[in-house]
Task: structure prediction
Amino acid sequence: MNPLELAGARPGPAFGVTLDGRAIEALPGQTVAAALWSAGVTSWRTTRGGGSPRGVFCGIGVCFDCLVTVNGRPNQRACLVPVRSGDVILTQEGTGHDGLG
Amino acid sequence: MTASDRTLAVIGAGPAGLAAALTAADQGVRVTLLDSAAQAGGQFYRQPAVGLGARRPEVLHHAWGTWLKLRDRLAAHIAAGRITYLSDRHVWLVEQHLEPGEVRGGAGFTVHALLGPEQVEPEAVTAAAVLLATGGYEKVLPFPGWTLPGVVTAGGAQAMLKGGLVLPGRTVVVAGTGPLLMPVAVGLAAAGARIAAYVESARPASLVRQAPTFAANPAKVVEAVGYAARLIRHRGRVTVRHAVVEAHGADRVEAVTVAALDADGRLRPGSERRIACDTLAVGHGMLAHTDLAESLGCAIDATGDPFVVTDAEQRTSVDGVWAAGEATGIGGAVLALAEGEIAGYSIAARLRGVEPGEADRAAPARTRARLRKFFAAIDTACAPPAHWTEQVTDDTVVCRCEEVPAGAVREAVRDLGATDLRTVKLLTRAGMGWCQGRICAPGVAGVAGCAAGPAKRTFARPVPLAVLAQEPDGRS
Ligand SMILES: Cc1cc2nc3c(=O)[nH]c(=O)nc-3n(C[C@H](O)[C@H](O)[C@H](O)COP(=O)(O)OP(=O)(O)OC[C@H]3O[C@@H](n4cnc5c(N)ncnc54)[C@H](O)[C@@H]3O)c2cc1C
Ligand code: FES
Result:
Protein backbone atom coordinates (compact mmCIF):
# COMPACT_ATOMS: atom_id res chain seq x y z
CA MET A 1 0.00 0.00 0.00
CA ASN A 2 1.10 3.57 -0.63
CA PRO A 3 -0.72 6.84 0.13
CA LEU A 4 -1.80 7.41 -3.49
CA GLU A 5 -3.38 3.93 -3.73
CA LEU A 6 -4.99 4.34 -0.33
CA ALA A 7 -6.74 7.55 -1.34
CA GLY A 8 -7.62 6.22 -4.77
CA ALA A 9 -5.65 9.05 -6.34
CA ARG A 10 -5.77 9.60 -10.08
CA PRO A 11 -3.37 12.50 -10.38
CA GLY A 12 -2.98 14.51 -13.52
CA PRO A 13 0.08 13.55 -15.57
CA ALA A 14 3.43 13.66 -13.75
CA PHE A 15 5.85 16.34 -14.86
CA GLY A 16 9.55 16.98 -14.60
CA VAL A 17 11.44 19.32 -12.28
CA THR A 18 15.09 19.37 -11.31
CA LEU A 19 16.83 19.26 -7.96
CA ASP A 20 20.40 20.53 -8.34
CA GLY A 21 20.20 19.52 -12.00
CA ARG A 22 18.93 16.00 -11.30
CA ALA A 23 15.61 15.15 -12.97
CA ILE A 24 12.73 14.41 -10.59
CA GLU A 25 9.10 13.54 -11.33
CA ALA A 26 6.42 15.49 -9.52
CA LEU A 27 2.62 15.27 -9.36
CA PRO A 28 0.27 18.19 -9.85
CA GLY A 29 -0.99 19.63 -6.58
CA GLN A 30 1.99 18.50 -4.51
CA THR A 31 4.16 20.96 -2.67
CA VAL A 32 7.87 21.11 -3.41
CA ALA A 33 8.44 19.22 -0.13
CA ALA A 34 5.96 16.47 -1.07
CA ALA A 35 7.60 16.06 -4.48
CA LEU A 36 11.03 15.79 -2.85
CA TRP A 37 9.78 13.27 -0.29
CA SER A 38 8.29 11.18 -3.13
CA ALA A 39 11.71 11.19 -4.76
CA GLY A 40 13.22 9.90 -1.52
CA VAL A 41 14.88 13.21 -0.62
CA THR A 42 14.41 14.36 2.97
CA SER A 43 17.03 17.09 3.23
CA TRP A 44 17.61 20.06 0.91
CA ARG A 45 19.30 22.69 3.00
CA THR A 46 22.32 23.06 5.23
CA THR A 47 22.36 25.45 8.14
CA ARG A 48 24.32 28.68 8.27
CA GLY A 49 26.32 27.86 11.38
CA GLY A 50 26.95 24.14 11.59
CA GLY A 51 26.25 23.23 7.96
CA SER A 52 23.81 20.57 9.21
CA PRO A 53 21.26 19.08 6.85
CA ARG A 54 17.60 20.05 7.24
CA GLY A 55 14.30 19.31 5.55
CA VAL A 56 10.67 19.28 6.68
CA PHE A 57 10.04 19.52 10.40
CA CYS A 58 6.63 21.08 11.14
CA GLY A 59 5.09 20.44 7.71
CA ILE A 60 2.75 23.46 7.97
CA GLY A 61 4.86 26.58 7.42
CA VAL A 62 5.74 27.43 11.03
CA CYS A 63 9.36 26.28 11.55
CA PHE A 64 11.22 27.47 8.40
CA ASP A 65 13.43 24.37 8.48
CA CYS A 66 12.41 23.42 4.93
CA LEU A 67 13.78 26.54 3.18
CA VAL A 68 14.84 25.98 -0.42
CA THR A 69 15.62 27.91 -3.60
CA VAL A 70 12.95 27.61 -6.32
CA ASN A 71 13.47 29.19 -9.74
CA GLY A 72 16.10 31.53 -8.37
CA ARG A 73 14.09 32.63 -5.33
CA PRO A 74 15.80 31.55 -2.10
CA ASN A 75 14.20 30.95 1.29
CA GLN A 76 10.94 29.47 0.00
CA ARG A 77 9.15 27.18 2.42
CA ALA A 78 9.07 23.89 0.52
CA CYS A 79 6.13 22.65 2.60
CA LEU A 80 3.93 25.54 1.37
CA VAL A 81 5.02 26.20 -2.22
CA PRO A 82 3.24 24.13 -4.89
CA VAL A 83 5.58 22.42 -7.34
CA ARG A 84 5.18 23.42 -11.00
CA SER A 85 6.34 21.84 -14.21
CA GLY A 86 9.92 22.77 -15.04
CA ASP A 87 10.75 24.14 -11.59
CA VAL A 88 14.46 24.51 -10.98
CA ILE A 89 14.98 23.57 -7.35
CA LEU A 90 18.35 24.14 -5.71
CA THR A 91 19.47 22.97 -2.33
CA GLN A 92 20.24 25.94 -0.18
CA GLU A 93 23.35 26.67 1.84
CA GLY A 94 23.68 29.22 4.59
CA THR A 95 21.36 32.20 4.48
CA GLY A 96 20.30 32.11 0.84
CA HIS A 97 19.70 35.79 0.28
CA ASP A 98 16.86 36.79 2.42
CA GLY A 99 14.32 39.06 0.87
CA LEU A 100 11.97 39.12 3.82
CA GLY A 101 11.82 41.66 6.60
CA MET B 1 -27.07 49.85 10.61
CA THR B 2 -28.24 46.22 10.49
CA ALA B 3 -26.06 43.20 11.04
CA SER B 4 -25.99 42.52 7.33
CA ASP B 5 -24.30 45.88 6.67
CA ARG B 6 -21.42 45.02 8.91
CA THR B 7 -18.80 42.52 7.99
CA LEU B 8 -17.10 39.92 10.07
CA ALA B 9 -13.59 38.89 9.12
CA VAL B 10 -12.83 35.30 10.12
CA ILE B 11 -9.16 34.35 10.07
CA GLY B 12 -8.73 30.60 9.69
CA ALA B 13 -10.99 28.16 7.85
CA GLY B 14 -10.48 25.19 10.17
CA PRO B 15 -13.31 23.69 12.23
CA ALA B 16 -13.51 26.76 14.51
CA GLY B 17 -13.47 29.40 11.78
CA LEU B 18 -15.89 27.49 9.58
CA ALA B 19 -18.40 26.93 12.38
CA ALA B 20 -18.26 30.62 13.31
CA ALA B 21 -18.50 31.87 9.72
CA LEU B 22 -21.45 29.57 8.94
CA THR B 23 -23.32 30.36 12.15
CA ALA B 24 -22.88 34.11 11.70
CA ALA B 25 -23.85 33.94 8.03
CA ASP B 26 -26.94 31.89 8.96
CA GLN B 27 -27.91 34.88 11.11
CA GLY B 28 -27.49 37.30 8.21
CA VAL B 29 -23.98 38.59 8.88
CA ARG B 30 -21.75 39.23 5.87
CA VAL B 31 -18.54 37.27 6.37
CA THR B 32 -15.10 37.41 4.81
CA LEU B 33 -13.28 34.17 5.53
CA LEU B 34 -9.51 34.24 5.04
CA ASP B 35 -7.18 31.25 5.22
CA SER B 36 -3.57 30.66 4.30
CA ALA B 37 -4.24 27.22 2.82
CA ALA B 38 -5.40 26.52 -0.72
CA GLN B 39 -8.46 24.63 0.53
CA ALA B 40 -10.76 25.11 3.51
CA GLY B 41 -10.74 22.60 6.38
CA GLY B 42 -7.80 23.54 8.59
CA GLN B 43 -5.56 20.85 10.04
CA PHE B 44 -8.25 18.36 10.94
CA TYR B 45 -10.08 18.35 7.59
CA ARG B 46 -6.96 18.82 5.47
CA GLN B 47 -7.50 17.25 2.05
CA PRO B 48 -5.35 16.02 -0.78
CA ALA B 49 -4.54 18.76 -3.30
CA VAL B 50 -7.12 18.86 -6.10
CA GLY B 51 -4.51 17.93 -8.73
CA LEU B 52 -3.98 14.58 -7.02
CA GLY B 53 -7.52 13.49 -7.96
CA ALA B 54 -8.16 11.51 -4.77
CA ARG B 55 -11.36 9.48 -5.09
CA ARG B 56 -11.29 8.33 -1.47
CA PRO B 57 -10.08 11.37 0.53
CA GLU B 58 -12.11 10.15 3.50
CA VAL B 59 -9.79 7.18 4.20
CA LEU B 60 -7.35 9.40 6.07
CA HIS B 61 -10.05 11.07 8.12
CA HIS B 62 -12.27 10.74 11.09
CA ALA B 63 -15.79 12.23 11.02
CA TRP B 64 -15.79 12.92 7.26
CA GLY B 65 -19.59 13.32 7.31
CA THR B 66 -19.22 16.43 9.48
CA TRP B 67 -16.81 17.89 6.92
CA LEU B 68 -19.21 17.23 4.02
CA LYS B 69 -21.95 19.15 5.83
CA LEU B 70 -19.62 22.08 6.58
CA ARG B 71 -18.42 22.09 2.97
CA ASP B 72 -21.96 22.15 1.57
CA ARG B 73 -23.09 24.91 3.93
CA LEU B 74 -20.03 26.95 2.98
CA ALA B 75 -20.72 26.50 -0.73
CA ALA B 76 -24.35 27.63 -0.25
CA HIS B 77 -23.32 30.77 1.63
CA ILE B 78 -20.67 31.60 -0.95
CA ALA B 79 -23.22 31.16 -3.75
CA ALA B 80 -25.67 33.43 -1.92
CA GLY B 81 -22.98 36.08 -1.48
CA ARG B 82 -23.09 35.97 2.31
CA ILE B 83 -19.59 34.55 2.68
CA THR B 84 -16.60 35.71 0.67
CA TYR B 85 -13.99 33.01 0.97
CA LEU B 86 -10.40 34.07 0.31
CA SER B 87 -7.96 31.16 0.23
CA ASP B 88 -4.17 31.49 0.03
CA ARG B 89 -4.27 34.62 2.23
CA HIS B 90 -1.57 34.74 4.91
CA VAL B 91 -2.66 37.28 7.50
CA TRP B 92 0.30 39.07 9.03
CA LEU B 93 -1.41 41.85 10.95
CA VAL B 94 -4.85 42.86 12.17
CA GLU B 95 -4.99 46.56 12.74
CA GLN B 96 -7.54 48.19 14.99
CA HIS B 97 -8.68 51.71 14.23
CA LEU B 98 -9.31 53.72 17.33
CA GLU B 99 -11.57 56.07 15.42
CA PRO B 100 -13.82 53.88 13.32
CA GLY B 101 -15.22 56.87 11.42
CA GLU B 102 -11.91 57.33 9.66
CA VAL B 103 -12.10 54.01 7.97
CA ARG B 104 -13.92 53.00 4.82
CA GLY B 105 -17.43 51.72 5.63
CA GLY B 106 -17.15 52.48 9.33
CA ALA B 107 -15.20 49.28 9.94
CA GLY B 108 -13.07 49.05 13.03
CA PHE B 109 -10.42 46.66 11.74
CA THR B 110 -8.16 46.18 8.76
CA VAL B 111 -6.89 42.67 8.15
CA HIS B 112 -3.61 42.67 6.24
CA ALA B 113 -2.73 39.58 4.24
CA LEU B 114 -0.16 38.37 1.75
CA LEU B 115 -1.38 36.51 -1.30
CA GLY B 116 -0.46 33.11 -2.58
CA PRO B 117 2.31 30.70 -1.71
CA GLU B 118 5.04 33.24 -2.50
CA GLN B 119 3.49 35.69 -0.04
CA VAL B 120 4.75 38.93 -1.51
CA GLU B 121 1.56 40.59 -2.81
CA PRO B 122 -0.43 42.45 -0.17
CA GLU B 123 -4.19 42.66 0.31
CA ALA B 124 -6.33 44.29 2.98
CA VAL B 125 -9.86 43.53 4.19
CA THR B 126 -11.84 45.83 6.45
CA ALA B 127 -14.37 44.56 8.97
CA ALA B 128 -16.45 45.59 11.95
CA ALA B 129 -15.61 42.44 13.89
CA VAL B 130 -12.79 39.92 13.78
CA LEU B 131 -12.70 36.27 14.75
CA LEU B 132 -9.30 34.70 15.30
CA ALA B 133 -9.53 30.97 14.51
CA THR B 134 -5.90 30.38 13.65
CA GLY B 135 -5.52 27.01 15.38
CA GLY B 136 -2.19 25.82 16.63
CA TYR B 137 0.94 23.89 15.83
CA GLU B 138 2.81 21.07 17.40
CA LYS B 139 5.13 21.36 20.37
CA VAL B 140 8.35 19.34 20.28
CA LEU B 141 10.79 19.48 23.17
CA PRO B 142 14.47 19.14 22.22
CA PHE B 143 16.54 15.96 22.55
CA PRO B 144 19.85 14.95 20.97
CA GLY B 145 19.35 14.32 17.26
CA TRP B 146 15.99 16.10 16.90
CA THR B 147 17.32 18.33 14.09
CA LEU B 148 18.14 15.36 11.82
CA PRO B 149 16.16 15.15 8.58
CA GLY B 150 13.55 12.43 8.95
CA VAL B 151 12.64 13.69 12.42
CA VAL B 152 9.30 15.40 11.84
CA THR B 153 6.46 16.57 14.02
CA ALA B 154 3.72 13.94 14.22
CA GLY B 155 1.15 16.45 12.98
CA GLY B 156 3.51 17.51 10.19
CA ALA B 157 3.81 13.94 8.95
CA GLN B 158 0.02 13.76 9.05
CA ALA B 159 -0.36 17.09 7.23
CA MET B 160 2.04 16.04 4.45
CA LEU B 161 0.22 12.71 4.15
CA LYS B 162 -3.28 14.20 4.07
CA GLY B 163 -2.36 17.06 1.74
CA GLY B 164 0.33 15.61 -0.54
CA LEU B 165 -0.27 11.86 -0.20
CA VAL B 166 3.36 11.25 0.70
CA LEU B 167 5.33 9.54 3.44
CA PRO B 168 8.71 10.65 4.77
CA GLY B 169 9.97 7.06 4.96
CA ARG B 170 8.86 3.45 5.35
CA THR B 171 9.81 2.59 8.93
CA VAL B 172 8.46 5.02 11.44
CA VAL B 173 8.75 5.46 15.18
CA VAL B 174 5.88 7.57 16.56
CA ALA B 175 6.81 9.06 19.91
CA GLY B 176 6.07 11.70 22.50
CA THR B 177 2.85 12.24 24.32
CA GLY B 178 -0.75 13.25 23.72
CA PRO B 179 -3.86 12.23 21.81
CA LEU B 180 -2.64 13.36 18.37
CA LEU B 181 -0.06 10.54 18.20
CA MET B 182 -2.70 7.79 17.78
CA PRO B 183 -4.48 9.10 14.66
CA VAL B 184 -1.07 9.94 13.18
CA ALA B 185 0.28 6.43 13.73
CA VAL B 186 -2.90 4.89 12.31
CA GLY B 187 -2.81 7.22 9.30
CA LEU B 188 0.83 6.46 8.53
CA ALA B 189 0.27 2.70 8.94
CA ALA B 190 -2.80 2.72 6.69
CA ALA B 191 -0.75 4.51 4.02
CA GLY B 192 1.84 1.74 4.05
CA ALA B 193 4.42 2.76 6.65
CA ARG B 194 5.62 0.22 9.18
CA ILE B 195 5.22 1.52 12.71
CA ALA B 196 8.42 0.18 14.28
CA ALA B 197 7.37 1.51 17.68
CA TYR B 198 4.70 3.69 19.26
CA VAL B 199 6.23 5.30 22.31
CA GLU B 200 4.01 7.26 24.72
CA SER B 201 5.57 8.79 27.83
CA ALA B 202 2.33 9.04 29.83
CA ARG B 203 1.46 6.41 32.40
CA PRO B 204 -1.80 4.50 31.98
CA ALA B 205 -2.25 4.91 35.75
CA SER B 206 -2.56 8.67 35.41
CA LEU B 207 -5.24 8.16 32.78
CA VAL B 208 -7.13 5.80 35.07
CA ARG B 209 -7.13 8.49 37.73
CA GLN B 210 -9.13 10.63 35.30
CA ALA B 211 -11.71 7.87 34.83
CA PRO B 212 -14.82 9.95 35.73
CA THR B 213 -13.94 12.55 33.10
CA PHE B 214 -13.46 9.82 30.52
CA ALA B 215 -16.76 8.17 31.49
CA ALA B 216 -18.48 11.50 30.72
CA ASN B 217 -17.00 11.44 27.22
CA PRO B 218 -17.82 7.98 25.85
CA ALA B 219 -17.46 9.12 22.22
CA LYS B 220 -13.88 10.28 22.80
CA VAL B 221 -13.02 7.02 24.56
CA VAL B 222 -14.53 4.93 21.76
CA GLU B 223 -12.51 7.02 19.27
CA ALA B 224 -9.28 6.38 21.18
CA VAL B 225 -9.95 2.67 21.57
CA GLY B 226 -10.80 2.46 17.87
CA TYR B 227 -7.47 4.06 16.93
CA ALA B 228 -5.58 1.73 19.28
CA ALA B 229 -7.33 -1.32 17.81
CA ARG B 230 -6.50 -0.22 14.27
CA LEU B 231 -2.88 0.39 15.20
CA ILE B 232 -2.61 -3.09 16.71
CA ARG B 233 -4.18 -4.53 13.54
CA HIS B 234 -1.37 -2.87 11.60
CA ARG B 235 1.01 -4.69 13.97
CA GLY B 236 2.17 -1.47 15.62
CA ARG B 237 3.75 -2.10 19.01
CA VAL B 238 2.54 0.30 21.70
CA THR B 239 4.91 1.09 24.56
CA VAL B 240 3.81 3.36 27.39
CA ARG B 241 5.86 5.17 30.01
CA HIS B 242 8.81 5.31 27.60
CA ALA B 243 10.45 8.22 25.82
CA VAL B 244 12.77 8.76 22.90
CA VAL B 245 16.03 10.03 24.34
CA GLU B 246 18.11 10.31 21.18
CA ALA B 247 17.82 10.15 17.40
CA HIS B 248 20.87 8.75 15.60
CA GLY B 249 22.14 9.27 12.07
CA ALA B 250 24.53 11.29 9.93
CA ASP B 251 22.46 12.92 7.18
CA ARG B 252 19.12 11.54 8.27
CA VAL B 253 17.68 9.56 11.14
CA GLU B 254 18.69 5.89 11.09
CA ALA B 255 17.68 4.79 14.57
CA VAL B 256 16.35 6.09 17.85
CA THR B 257 17.09 5.17 21.45
CA VAL B 258 14.06 4.80 23.67
CA ALA B 259 14.15 4.26 27.41
CA ALA B 260 11.72 3.47 30.20
CA LEU B 261 10.69 6.17 32.66
CA ASP B 262 10.22 5.65 36.38
CA ALA B 263 7.26 6.92 38.37
CA ASP B 264 8.92 10.33 38.76
CA GLY B 265 9.50 10.70 35.02
CA ARG B 266 13.24 9.94 35.21
CA LEU B 267 15.05 7.55 32.89
CA ARG B 268 15.48 4.04 34.19
CA PRO B 269 19.22 3.44 33.77
CA GLY B 270 19.96 0.39 31.67
CA SER B 271 16.52 0.35 30.03
CA GLU B 272 17.75 1.96 26.78
CA ARG B 273 16.83 0.17 23.59
CA ARG B 274 17.87 1.11 20.05
CA ILE B 275 15.22 0.87 17.32
CA ALA B 276 16.11 1.12 13.63
CA CYS B 277 13.88 3.50 11.64
CA ASP B 278 14.06 6.03 8.82
CA THR B 279 11.50 8.41 10.31
CA LEU B 280 10.69 9.69 13.76
CA ALA B 281 7.29 11.38 14.07
CA VAL B 282 7.36 13.14 17.41
CA GLY B 283 5.13 15.50 19.38
CA HIS B 284 4.69 16.68 22.95
CA GLY B 285 1.32 18.37 22.65
CA MET B 286 0.10 21.46 20.85
CA LEU B 287 0.67 25.20 21.10
CA ALA B 288 -1.89 27.88 20.24
CA HIS B 289 -1.23 30.49 17.54
CA THR B 290 -1.50 33.66 19.64
CA ASP B 291 0.47 36.09 17.46
CA LEU B 292 -2.41 38.05 15.89
CA ALA B 293 -4.16 38.26 19.25
CA GLU B 294 -0.97 39.52 20.89
CA SER B 295 -0.48 42.28 18.35
CA LEU B 296 -4.12 43.36 18.87
CA GLY B 297 -3.48 43.56 22.60
CA CYS B 298 -5.82 40.69 23.55
CA ALA B 299 -5.21 39.19 26.98
CA ILE B 300 -3.07 36.04 26.79
CA ASP B 301 -2.83 33.47 29.55
CA ALA B 302 0.84 32.52 29.66
CA THR B 303 1.01 30.74 33.00
CA GLY B 304 1.63 27.54 31.04
CA ASP B 305 1.59 27.21 27.25
CA PRO B 306 0.12 30.56 26.11
CA PHE B 307 -3.45 30.83 24.79
CA VAL B 308 -5.92 33.62 24.02
CA VAL B 309 -8.25 34.37 26.94
CA THR B 310 -11.96 34.37 26.05
CA ASP B 311 -15.23 34.78 27.95
CA ALA B 312 -18.41 32.68 27.78
CA GLU B 313 -19.22 34.16 24.34
CA GLN B 314 -15.67 33.57 23.03
CA ARG B 315 -14.94 37.31 23.20
CA THR B 316 -11.34 38.34 23.79
CA SER B 317 -10.45 41.26 26.04
CA VAL B 318 -10.45 43.58 22.99
CA ASP B 319 -13.83 44.92 21.91
CA GLY B 320 -14.83 43.55 18.52
CA VAL B 321 -12.36 40.65 18.57
CA TRP B 322 -13.48 37.06 19.17
CA ALA B 323 -11.34 33.90 19.26
CA ALA B 324 -12.27 30.22 18.95
CA GLY B 325 -10.66 26.81 18.55
CA GLU B 326 -7.09 25.89 19.39
CA ALA B 327 -6.01 29.56 19.50
CA THR B 328 -7.88 29.67 22.83
CA GLY B 329 -6.44 26.40 24.15
CA ILE B 330 -5.92 22.92 22.82
CA GLY B 331 -8.90 20.59 22.60
CA GLY B 332 -9.44 19.06 19.17
CA ALA B 333 -11.86 19.55 16.32
CA VAL B 334 -15.19 18.95 18.11
CA LEU B 335 -14.37 21.57 20.74
CA ALA B 336 -13.23 23.95 17.98
CA LEU B 337 -16.59 23.49 16.21
CA ALA B 338 -18.53 24.20 19.42
CA GLU B 339 -16.48 27.33 20.22
CA GLY B 340 -16.87 28.58 16.66
CA GLU B 341 -20.63 28.15 16.81
CA ILE B 342 -20.86 30.03 20.11
CA ALA B 343 -18.73 32.84 18.68
CA GLY B 344 -20.92 33.00 15.55
CA TYR B 345 -24.09 33.52 17.61
CA SER B 346 -22.40 36.08 19.81
CA ILE B 347 -20.98 38.07 16.88
CA ALA B 348 -24.31 38.15 15.03
CA ALA B 349 -26.10 39.47 18.10
CA ARG B 350 -23.42 41.97 19.14
CA LEU B 351 -23.19 43.43 15.63
CA ARG B 352 -26.92 44.07 15.90
CA GLY B 353 -26.35 45.65 19.28
CA VAL B 354 -28.31 43.05 21.24
CA GLU B 355 -27.43 40.42 23.84
CA PRO B 356 -27.00 36.94 22.37
CA GLY B 357 -29.78 34.52 23.37
CA GLU B 358 -28.74 31.88 25.88
CA ALA B 359 -30.87 29.25 24.14
CA ASP B 360 -28.93 29.43 20.87
CA ARG B 361 -25.66 28.55 22.44
CA ALA B 362 -26.88 26.12 25.12
CA ALA B 363 -25.99 22.96 23.20
CA PRO B 364 -22.52 24.03 22.00
CA ALA B 365 -21.84 25.49 25.46
CA ARG B 366 -22.53 22.09 27.03
CA THR B 367 -20.17 20.43 24.52
CA ARG B 368 -17.56 23.09 25.26
CA ALA B 369 -17.77 22.58 29.03
CA ARG B 370 -17.53 18.80 28.73
CA LEU B 371 -14.63 18.79 26.25
CA ARG B 372 -12.62 21.48 28.02
CA LYS B 373 -12.77 19.32 31.13
CA PHE B 374 -11.81 16.25 29.11
CA PHE B 375 -8.79 17.93 27.52
CA ALA B 376 -7.68 19.40 30.84
CA ALA B 377 -7.58 15.82 32.13
CA ILE B 378 -5.68 14.65 29.04
CA ASP B 379 -3.27 17.54 29.45
CA THR B 380 -2.49 16.51 33.03
CA ALA B 381 -2.08 12.86 32.10
CA CYS B 382 -0.01 13.58 28.98
CA ALA B 383 2.38 16.15 30.40
CA PRO B 384 5.92 15.56 29.10
CA PRO B 385 8.15 13.59 31.53
CA ALA B 386 8.95 15.83 34.50
CA HIS B 387 12.73 15.51 34.07
CA TRP B 388 12.97 15.74 30.28
CA THR B 389 15.67 18.43 30.39
CA GLU B 390 18.10 15.92 31.97
CA GLN B 391 18.37 14.22 28.56
CA VAL B 392 19.21 17.47 26.80
CA THR B 393 23.02 17.42 26.49
CA ASP B 394 24.91 20.73 26.38
CA ASP B 395 25.64 20.31 22.67
CA THR B 396 21.99 19.59 21.77
CA VAL B 397 20.64 22.38 19.57
CA VAL B 398 17.62 23.90 21.32
CA CYS B 399 16.86 26.80 18.95
CA ARG B 400 16.74 25.22 15.50
CA CYS B 401 16.86 28.47 13.48
CA GLU B 402 19.82 30.08 15.23
CA GLU B 403 21.48 26.75 16.14
CA VAL B 404 21.82 27.64 19.81
CA PRO B 405 23.02 24.72 21.93
CA ALA B 406 21.54 23.98 25.36
CA GLY B 407 24.95 24.70 26.89
CA ALA B 408 24.72 28.34 25.82
CA VAL B 409 21.30 28.68 27.41
CA ARG B 410 22.54 27.08 30.62
CA GLU B 411 25.54 29.38 30.63
CA ALA B 412 23.30 32.43 30.21
CA VAL B 413 21.35 31.36 33.28
CA ARG B 414 24.25 30.13 35.41
CA ASP B 415 26.99 32.65 34.63
CA LEU B 416 25.22 35.67 33.17
CA GLY B 417 22.23 35.84 35.47
CA ALA B 418 19.42 35.44 32.93
CA THR B 419 16.13 34.68 34.67
CA ASP B 420 13.59 35.09 31.86
CA LEU B 421 13.24 34.05 28.24
CA ARG B 422 13.75 37.56 26.89
CA THR B 423 17.16 37.89 28.52
CA VAL B 424 18.13 34.38 27.39
CA LYS B 425 17.16 35.46 23.88
CA LEU B 426 19.27 38.61 23.99
CA LEU B 427 22.28 36.74 25.36
CA THR B 428 22.10 33.64 23.13
CA ARG B 429 19.97 34.58 20.08
CA ALA B 430 17.63 31.67 20.90
CA GLY B 431 14.27 32.66 19.39
CA MET B 432 15.60 35.39 17.10
CA GLY B 433 15.60 33.40 13.87
CA TRP B 434 13.11 32.73 11.11
CA CYS B 435 10.40 31.13 13.24
CA GLN B 436 10.64 33.90 15.86
CA GLY B 437 10.78 31.43 18.72
CA ARG B 438 7.59 29.62 17.81
CA ILE B 439 9.32 26.24 17.80
CA CYS B 440 11.99 26.72 20.49
CA ALA B 441 10.17 28.73 23.20
CA PRO B 442 9.02 25.78 25.34
CA GLY B 443 12.34 23.96 24.92
CA VAL B 444 14.51 26.96 25.72
CA ALA B 445 12.27 27.92 28.65
CA GLY B 446 12.49 24.36 29.99
CA VAL B 447 16.28 24.24 29.73
CA ALA B 448 16.57 27.73 31.25
CA GLY B 449 14.12 26.85 34.01
CA CYS B 450 11.84 29.84 33.39
CA ALA B 451 8.32 30.42 32.03
CA ALA B 452 7.81 30.71 28.27
CA GLY B 453 5.61 33.81 28.64
CA PRO B 454 4.00 35.74 25.78
CA ALA B 455 6.26 36.26 22.77
CA LYS B 456 5.46 39.83 21.60
CA ARG B 457 6.15 39.40 17.89
CA THR B 458 5.61 42.44 15.70
CA PHE B 459 4.04 40.52 12.82
CA ALA B 460 2.44 37.10 12.57
CA ARG B 461 4.25 36.31 9.32
CA PRO B 462 7.48 37.48 7.72
CA VAL B 463 6.64 40.46 5.52
CA PRO B 464 8.59 41.74 2.53
CA LEU B 465 9.92 45.24 3.21
CA ALA B 466 8.27 46.47 0.00
CA VAL B 467 4.86 45.59 1.48
CA LEU B 468 5.52 47.63 4.60
CA ALA B 469 6.43 50.60 2.41
CA GLN B 470 3.17 50.66 0.48
CA GLU B 471 -0.46 51.28 1.36
CA PRO B 472 -2.60 48.44 -0.01
CA ASP B 473 -6.08 48.91 -1.44
CA GLY B 474 -8.85 48.16 1.02
CA ARG B 475 -11.45 45.49 0.42
CA SER B 476 -14.48 44.77 2.56
C1 LIG C 1 -0.03 19.73 11.67
C2 LIG C 1 -1.25 19.34 12.45
C3 LIG C 1 -1.94 18.17 12.13
C4 LIG C 1 -3.06 17.78 12.84
N1 LIG C 1 -3.68 16.61 12.51
C5 LIG C 1 -4.73 16.19 13.27
C6 LIG C 1 -5.36 14.92 13.02
O1 LIG C 1 -4.99 14.22 12.08
N2 LIG C 1 -6.36 14.52 13.84
C7 LIG C 1 -6.78 15.28 14.90
O2 LIG C 1 -7.67 14.87 15.62
N3 LIG C 1 -6.24 16.48 15.12
C8 LIG C 1 -5.22 16.94 14.36
N4 LIG C 1 -4.62 18.15 14.66
C9 LIG C 1 -5.21 18.97 15.72
C10 LIG C 1 -6.12 20.03 15.07
O3 LIG C 1 -5.38 21.23 15.07
C11 LIG C 1 -7.44 20.30 15.76
O4 LIG C 1 -8.11 19.16 16.08
C12 LIG C 1 -8.40 21.19 14.93
O5 LIG C 1 -8.07 21.21 13.58
C13 LIG C 1 -8.43 22.58 15.50
O6 LIG C 1 -9.30 23.40 14.77
P1 LIG C 1 -9.08 24.95 14.64
O7 LIG C 1 -10.15 25.43 13.75
O8 LIG C 1 -8.91 25.55 15.97
O9 LIG C 1 -7.65 25.12 13.94
P2 LIG C 1 -7.04 24.59 12.56
O10 LIG C 1 -7.73 23.41 12.06
O11 LIG C 1 -5.58 24.50 12.82
O12 LIG C 1 -7.33 25.77 11.56
C14 LIG C 1 -6.65 26.99 11.59
C15 LIG C 1 -6.62 27.56 10.21
O13 LIG C 1 -6.11 28.87 10.29
C16 LIG C 1 -5.23 29.11 9.25
N5 LIG C 1 -4.30 30.13 9.71
C17 LIG C 1 -3.50 30.13 10.81
N6 LIG C 1 -2.81 31.27 10.90
C18 LIG C 1 -3.19 32.03 9.83
C19 LIG C 1 -2.82 33.33 9.37
N7 LIG C 1 -1.95 34.08 10.03
N8 LIG C 1 -3.39 33.77 8.21
C20 LIG C 1 -4.30 33.02 7.53
N9 LIG C 1 -4.68 31.80 7.93
C21 LIG C 1 -4.14 31.31 9.06
C22 LIG C 1 -4.58 27.78 8.97
O14 LIG C 1 -4.17 27.68 7.63
C23 LIG C 1 -5.72 26.80 9.27
O15 LIG C 1 -6.42 26.46 8.11
C24 LIG C 1 -3.50 18.56 13.92
C25 LIG C 1 -2.81 19.74 14.25
C26 LIG C 1 -1.70 20.13 13.54
C27 LIG C 1 -0.97 21.39 13.90
S1 FES D 1 8.50 22.29 7.45
FE1 FES D 1 8.22 23.87 8.87
S2 FES D 1 8.04 25.55 7.56
FE2 FES D 1 8.11 23.94 6.16
